[in-house]
Amino acid sequence: MAGHPGVRGLVIKEGLLWERSRKGRIGVSLPEQDVPRAELADELVGEKPALPELSEVDVIRHYTRLSTWNFGVDTGTYPLGSCTMKYNPKINEHLAGLPGFANLHPMTPESHAQGALKLMYELERDLLEITKLHAVSLQPAAGAQGELTGMLMIHAYHAHKGRQRGKVIMPSTAHGTNPASAALCGYAPVPVRISPDGIITPEAIREVMDEDTAGIMITNPNTLGIFESNIAEITKIIHEKGGLVYGDGANLNALMGYADIEKMGIDVLHVNVHKTLSTPHGGGGPGAGPVVVRDILEPFLPIPRIVKEGDRYKLVSDAPLSIGRLHSFYGNFATLARALAYTRTLGKRLKDVTELAVLNANYVKARLKGVYNLPFPQPSMHECVFNDAIQHKGGVTTLDIAKRLIDLGYHPPTVYFPLVVDGALMIEPTESESKADLDGFVEAMIAIAEEAVTDPGAVKDAPRNTRVSRPDEVRAARHLILRGEIPG
Amino acid sequence: MKSLEELDIRGDLVYTQTHEWTRRTGDTAQVGVDDYAQSALGDIVYVELPSVGATVNAGAAFGSLESTKAVSDLYSSVTGKVVAVNETLSDSPELVNTSPYEDGWVIEVEMANPKELDALMKSDDYLSFVKTLAPIE
Amino acid sequence: MRYLSHTPDDIKEMLEAVGVKSVEELFSSIPAGVRRDSEIDIEPRSEWRLSRDFEEMAGGLTAAGPAVSFAGAGSYSHCVPAHIPYLASRSEFLTSYTPYQPEISQGTLQAIFEFQTMTAGLLGMEIANASMYDGASSLAEAVLMAIRTKKKPKVAVSRLNHPHYLQVLKTYLRPTAFEVVELEALPDGRTDYGATPDDVSALVVQSPNFLGCIEDLASAAETAHSKGALLVTSFTEAMAWGLLKNPGGQGADIVSGEGKSFGIPHSFGGPGVGMLACKKDFVRTIPGRLVGETIDKNGERSFVLTLAAREQHIRREKAVSNICTNSGHNALIAAIYMSTAGKEGLREIAQQNHDRAVYLKNGLEEAGFRPLFDSPFFNEFAMTAPAGFEKRHEALLARGFLAGLKLDLFPEYNDPRYKDAYLFCATEAHTRGVLDEFFAILKEVA
Fewest Cβ atoms nearer than 10 Å: which of A112, A275, A451, C297? Predict the structure, then answer.
């Protein structure tokens, strides 16, 4: 398979960190001991911590080698559906790490933290402008905590109205974390069928919505990448029965500049800043999951809130209906700073971001249609979902296709999600990919489809260019090894 | 996933729609998961077991099976008290895959009402039922 | 726009391939009734103007914090070796997602496995997860874990946990029927475990506690276990475990806390890194990601995410938590810090924290401050200030010193017992020169 970016390179072996450990090594520069030693009572003092003994050079070599075994957005095309792996601008890293922010203690008196409070206030304004909702809290530390925050607010709203409800409507095309977030609030999920077009219909909602249902958790565009075009009618039905609408903002990047979230009838929406607003995912966080709400939910927002009085900013906790605090302090400030750097760089051109994200997804979809099966051919937005129905006949599965893509130099799409599609391959190129990169990805996908016919064994044997291949997950789960042994 | 022809459905057992088998010895019922379920779930990595002495109810969940990609509840076929659980599954959950009807049994229940067994499917009925499920490729 | 590479020709060709005439046509499924009627009203900025805006917010006399701070209370000032941010900024770590494809994520996976190992070792526990958001949510999840395990209706919680952590715990428990029983402080600044009720799932204790005192975790464990409950411990200062007996060794069942002290800057309070560790019996109830060791098809040692069946995307509403993204990159930083400091370095740094805190405390006593308690502390302690100190505190701030945190900043401590009390913290980052300068200026602003 010539022409694809994936080729073999020199891979350097590296053992576990502590295999480099030698008694007596130290990797840190110790401050001068310029005050008298103060001994704690023996009964309070423990053994020396069970950590390895390494030089600074050991540490550098170890982590540098580990890093070379990873694939990031900076490495190449990363079309992981629903995760929005767009480019993470470097200026954002620099600005979030300015010493005035990095060294700012969270309990610094407000008089000396005006700049940081201003930054948060400004980001709040931008999120309101992007969504057209009414009020916001930046506190949730990730999308899933934003979801929990939204559901806690809905729970608090119903409690305040005097009658708690027991259920929440959960379409199968909603985001994966939704049922667990609802369950933390004691709400039982109520499934709702989706139409053959892959969307929810008002009729289906009417069948399940009642006065014991707290509301609905809805992702729009849904996880098939399809816009829920009945959204206004659906949310109207929910509201008429006294319910509220939780909008999962995981796919907000498909709507910027086009949709008005308030007009959609959404009462609370969370925003994944690492998806829509370009903060790096870091291999698993930290993220930030601000929640944006309609006016009726404002009294329930987490505390403290940021308020501007004249030209001064302050933190206010006087909110008797608030659900309370969600974070050790005010949220993941440094992550939020990156998000503000992004909204202020793009500004009104966030609409271009949305347009190109949708164009890229539709381009990939158009070019792969027929090569791979498209279970829902309806117009889609920022992502598209294929499956392995064609290749499966020859014994090649979604997993094999994903692994072969790795060999060819691409990060695979999201696989086996959403669950409504068997063997799903969920592709979200994002706006960051150039046409040339998309063409390369498409050609790799086509080459794999051909290989699935001519040489299925080669696809099933993939990946071959990586340091390890198909680690045994069953063995990992049956014989749990969750830590190593650091030599004493 | 096995094809219908490959499925091993035993004639001496009775079955639930949730794919548990039951073997009767006097007033004791031994319960496990059948070949269809183990094959559909794939490699079982963990079996969540009840304690001996716990009460189980016909049709109610009493434990679960985990593969690396899915979790499936285990439903009791009968009502009664758990008198034995298959402790070897704690270390060797793969027995559910390799020997679903013998070494991979899950619990033994002292039945409160052995007549409940009459409501379960015989192997022929069960095979007809399995044929109505999503086609196996 | 420099982040978008499409030329007009590219767009034209792509539209043709899709079979539409314009980009707008791709949005035809959005009905008119839910469309916005205005442009996004945010002005785009050049990199240079953006930088000026941010530098202004980060700098300036009233914007940036004081030069020397004796504030702790959940966020501690420590020295960060230069190579740590340098290594962590490698984009292979920074710009990757959760390691769903193990073949191209072994770097992240092995680093997390090593983080789990060092965290568990540091805390004296059998296993640790891949991290939580922060110390507060880690504590809330630890308590939920204990409730799932013990299924009793109450939890007994020391009032001397960080007040923000207690607030977060209450937020998480709000929709449930579980009751939080608060245990009072004894006159020595430690928790009155004796008041623990019988029907609790957990006894929850922070050590060193919010007022800096080192709790007697062994006797807390004895109390908890005698009532059939679990001992859940919390910490805000991970550095303490370089010197103190670890919680696992004293009988803790679940340990939660904040690992921000290991190489992560204040950043106005976040992000940090939640640590969560437990005995291995609870492995199926621990929330968050876990990395396990295995072998690949060629027998090579490899690492994968494991026990995913506990998690939200598989078990859905029965999942042990909804957490997915955690603090992975900060866990990496903490792991690099722990490996850099190592066994000997962490002990010495921790000892220096205690040395400097004692030096600061002695200096404050000479300046007329009185300790609130005589219980042992690590690097943080509470003092009652001499009359009129509040004004001097402001004057000191103007001179660049944040001279401790007045306890009544936290409404929970708005109590006559704590009148005029301040929380002080010193770490290895406070040199003798800085401390002596502070004592001198303290006299000047009298």
Answer: C297
